[in-house]
Amino acid sequence: MNAATSELKESFWARLKSHARFKRKYLAFPYAVFLVLFVILPLLLIVYYAFSDSSGTPSFDALVSFFTSPNKWQVLFVSLFMGVQTTLICLLLGYPAAYILADKKLNKNAVLVVLFVMPMWINFVIRTGATRDLLDVIGLSGAQYPWPATLIGMVYNYLPFTILPLYTTMLKLDRSQMEAAADLGASPFRVFVHNVVPQSLPGIISASEMVFMPVMSSYVISDTLSEGKITLFGNYIYLDFSNSMWNEGSFMALIMLIIVGVSMFLTRNVDRSDAQVRGGGLW
Amino acid sequence: MKKKELLTKIFARGYIALLLLLMYLPILVLVVFSFTDTTNLFTWDVFTFDLYVRLFNNKEIMTAVGNTLLVALISSLVASALGTFAAIGVHELGKKGKRAYEFANNIPVVNPEIVISLSLIIMFVFLGNYVFNGFEKSFWTLLCGHLVLTTPFVYLSVKPKILQMDPALYEAALDLGCTPAQAMRKVTYPAILPGILSGFMLAFTLSLDDFIITAFLTGPGLLSGAESIQTISTYVQSVIKKRPLPPEMRALCTIILLVVVIVVFSIFFLSRKERVKKRKGRTYIHG
User: Is A265 in the B-facing interface, judged by CB distances under 8 Å?
Assistant: First the structure.
C-alpha cells in the first residue's frame, strides 16, 4: 500500500516535471498577469464606475451631468483649444529647427540635437516653477494673463518632444527628390509643400501625438502657470480625485479615452516604425 | 549664389541659437542665482555657496530627493526584469497571442497618465470595498503605478533586439548541452543587453520625472516613514502652489543639470565611439 502510493507520487512528480519543462514562452506569463490586473481591469472599472452611481447601481447620472453641465463642456473645449494651439506652435517652432538640425550643409554638429532634448531630463515641476517665476518678473504673471502664461509653459515643456520625432524623419528625407523637383522648375515654396511636407508627414503626426494628448490631460503646468485659473481635463480629474468623486472622474477619464481612441484610429495608417516614443531614441 | 548660401547658414544658425537660448533661459537663471543667497530671483547679493549648504541641510528636500531616487531605481529594476522576460516570452507566442499581448502593452503608452492614475486608484478602492477589508495606499501602490508607466517602454526597447537575434543560436546552445537557464544567460542575455540597458534608462527617467501617478498613489513608506512618500515632483508642486520656488531649489536644479550633462554626454560619446568601432569592424570583415 505504502509502496504503491510512493510509486504513484513519484510518477506524478515525473509527469509534472516533464509537463513543466521550461519553455521560453512561460517568461511572458508574469507580465501578462500584471497587464490584466493593473491595465485592463482598471480600465474596465473606469467604464463600470462611469455608468454607475456612488452606491454601485447602474446609472447614467455622470453622462447626463456631462451633457447638461456647461462647466464640463467648457473643460472639454478649453482643453481641446489649448491642445491644438500648443501643438501648432510647437510644430511651427520645431519644424524649421528639426530641418536645420538634420541638414548636413547647415549643421554638422550632432551635439546640438542632444542640447535640444536635454531639458527633458530635468525635473519638469522645477522647470515649470522656474518658468512661472521668470514670467512673473517680466510682467506676464498667470494671475493677470493666465492663457498666454500657460501656453508659454506648455510650448516650453513640449518642444523637445516635437523636435525629436521630426528630426528622426527629417534625417531620412530623400534630398535627390527635392533637387529633382527644383531642377524641373518648382519654386522653393512648391518643393516644400509638395515634397518636403509629404515626406515628413509621419514625423509631423507622431510629434502632434506626443504633444496634443499630454497637453489636454496635463495638471501641473496649467495649475501652476495659470494660478489655477485654467481647468484642463487633468485638473478636473485631479479635483474629482481629491474629492473622491469616482463616478464623475471616471466619466471624464472615459471621454479622454475616447479621444485617444479616435486619434489612434485616424492615424492608424501612418507608418510610425521609426518615430521615437517619448525620447527613447536618444538612449 | 554663394552669398545666398551664407545668408541661409547665418539665419539657420541664428534661429537654432535663439531657440536654445529661450529653452534654457529659466534653467540658466536658476543656475546663475544659485550662487548667491537672496530670497528673490534676479537680485544678486554676494557670491556664495550658501544655498548649497542650505540644500543639504534641508531635511524635507533631501528626503524627497532620496525617495525619488529609490522609487526610480526600484521601479526601473523591476520593470526591466518584467519587460525583458515578457519580450523574450512573447516572441515564442503564436500570432494571435502576440497581437493581444502587444495591444495590452501599448495601452499605457498612449493612455494619458492622469487616466492611468485614476484607473489604478479606482481599482484599489474597488478591491478595498468588495474584496479586501479596506485599502491603504503605500509604497506598493506607488510601485504598481510606476511599473504600469515604465514596463511597456522596456518591452518596446528589448523587442527589436530579440527580433534581430538569430533564433538558431539559442537552439544551438541547448543542443550543445546548455540548460535553458545557461543558454538564456550566455546567448540571449548578451545579445539583448543594449536593449535592456536603454529600456532601464528610459524607465528610470520616466519614473524620475513623474508627478501625477505619484500624487495619486503615494502612501507612507521609504524615507518618509509614517508620512506619505514625497518625491521631488510632489514636494516642489506643493511648495510652488502658493509662493515662488524656494531658493534651495536653484542649487538642486544646478546639481541636476550637472548630473544630466555628464550622463547624457558620456552616453552620447560612448555610443558614437561604439558606432565608429562597429563601422570600422565591418569594413575590416568585408575588405
Answer: no
